[in-house]
């Protein structure tokens, strides 16, 4: 379908001078709009947008179908679009000192191509479709008008908080700000499950407000005599710790490449900042030593509670 471009009237009294810019609209069928909304519902970069801005983003996106081995992005190129994945698997390759290495993959969800557009730099990686896939693309101009502008607000909002997160002390200020640029914020109701033990992991969390509790499944009989009517395999969840403002969780599965080692629940209304695995790998390298030291503490904690740390080895 042909995109329409409509010019909004310029109103000098309005603070928001970007309203005078051109809005791009790619018409979509109801079915396409449904699929697009589903693909975008967990995209972190869209999480802090106002409803109206989000709706403009959806209007401007257009569908791109890709074939196996197709290069969607080539490292070193100029940035044209930002992409959200509807389906398909995509390899991420980074070339350094003449050697190309696969540093990860996107598996039927997520987004890529934001860096060149945010920082006006050449593409930092090559993205290749492994199988037939479908993407939604957002053009550079709309990305600038809505996402980059929103990032200026995000930096103001989160700068002071991010400065106080102990884990991030070893990062440069510019690296902390890059984290703010790509993070999303999610709110959870009392008792809501944030992480499920045993699930595959794709993001990392920092508590911005409220409290979360970490629960680990144990065999009901572990560590105590079993009553007659108790099922031998019955499992119960036991609380092992809590995290409050400024503390993080969900790093373990990303560092060890294993399923989630515990479940995490909101205690009261809770807000968390969320960072996806690709940004975690790219930006939090300098903090990994601190995380690893804390992982040793998890073992000690489990040994103290249950007499062993078997759960972390699964
Ligand atoms: P961009 O540089 O615009 O184009 C390539 C994209 O690959 C990049 O934005 C990120 O969205 C994505 N990407 C995923 N992992 C990495 C990585 N380790 N380094 C650089 N880019 C990455
Ligand atoms: P992850 O395994 O990704 O998801 C569950 C999270 O709970 C885990 O990362 C840790 O961040 C957190 N956690 C806190 N205490 C423990 C513990 N003793 N054992 C395992 N995970 C813990």
From TrEMBL:
<protein>
    <submittedName>
        <fullName>Uncharacterized protein</fullName>
    </submittedName>
</protein>
């Amino acid at each position: 379908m042909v995109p329409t471009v409509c010019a909004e009237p310029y109103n000098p009294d309005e603070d928001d001078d970007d309203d005078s810019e051109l809005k791009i609209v790619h018409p979509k069928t109801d079915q396409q709009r449904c699929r697009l909304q589903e693909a975008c519902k967990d995209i972190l970069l869209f999480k802090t947008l106002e409803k109206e801005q989000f709706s403009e983003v959806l209007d401007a996106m257009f569908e791109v179908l890709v074939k196996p081995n197709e290069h969607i992005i080539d490292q070193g190129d100029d940035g044209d679009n930002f992409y959200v994945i509807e389906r398909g698997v995509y390899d991420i390759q980074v070339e350094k000192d003449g050697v190309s290495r696969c540093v990860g993959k996107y598996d039927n969800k997520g987004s890529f191509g934001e860096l060149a557009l945010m920082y006006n730099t050449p593409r930092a990686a090559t993205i290749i479709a492994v199988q037939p896939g479908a993407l939604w693309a957002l053009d550079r101009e709309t990305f600038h008008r809505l996402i980059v502008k929103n990032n200026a607000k995000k930096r103001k909002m989160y700068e002071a908080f991010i400065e106080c997160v102990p884990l991030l002390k070893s990062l440069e200020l510019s690296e902390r700000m890059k984290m703010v640029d790509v993070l999303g914020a999610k709110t959870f109701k009392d008792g809501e499950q944030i992480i499920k033990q045993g699930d595959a992991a794709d993001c990392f969390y920092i508590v911005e407000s409220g409290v979360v509790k970490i629960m680990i499944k144990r065999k009901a009989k572990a560590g105590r005599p079993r009553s007659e009517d108790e099922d031998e395999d019955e499992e119960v969840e036991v609380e092992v710790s809590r995290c409050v403002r400024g503390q993080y969780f969900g790093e373990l599965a990303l560092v060890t490449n294993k399923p989630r080692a515990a479940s995490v629940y909101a205690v009261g209304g809770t807000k968390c900042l969320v960072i996806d695995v690709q940004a975690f790998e790219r930006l939090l390298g300098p903090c990994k030593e601190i995380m690893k030291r804390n992982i040793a503490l998890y073992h000690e904690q489990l040994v103290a509670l249950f007499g062993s740390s078997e759960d972390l080895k699964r």
